[in-house]
Amino acid sequence: MSKNDEYRANAAECPRIARTTRSESEKRTWLDMAESWLRLIKPAQPCDPAVRLDPAEPSATHELRPRTAH
Predict the structure, then answer these.
(1) Integer Cα distance of 19 and 36 in angstroms
(2) Contact between 30 and 18 (Cβ < 8 Å)
(3) What confidence tier does 61 reach under pLDDT thresholds 50, 70, 90?
(4) In the predicted model, what is the mean pLDDT of the chain?
(5) Angle 44-49-52 (CA atoms, 0-180°, nearest 5)?
(6) What is the pLDDT of residues 27-54, one digit of tens each?
(7) Rounded to whole angstroms, how far apart are CA atoms 48 and 10?
(8) Mind spelling out the 3-state secondary structure of the chain?
């Protein structure tokens, strides 16, 4: 299990626990904890750097040449 999966599982458990408590302050604490777990999740990074490039976007390494009328 990856860290992100672990964090998601922990975050999912918090609202379940919050529903079982009678105290509003405890419920809020559990829901705040769920948000904290979710903030720990890191965005997925593509394996191939080329995946991040949009072929429609000009890159800094490629110079665009103006089209000339023939």
Answers:
(1) 18
(2) yes
(3) very low
(4) 81
(5) 70
(6) 999 999 999 999 999 998 776 555 555 5
(7) 30
(8) CCHHHHHHHHHHHHHHHHHHCCCHHHHHHHHHHHHHHHHCCCCCCCCCHHHHCCCCCCCCCCCCCCCCCC
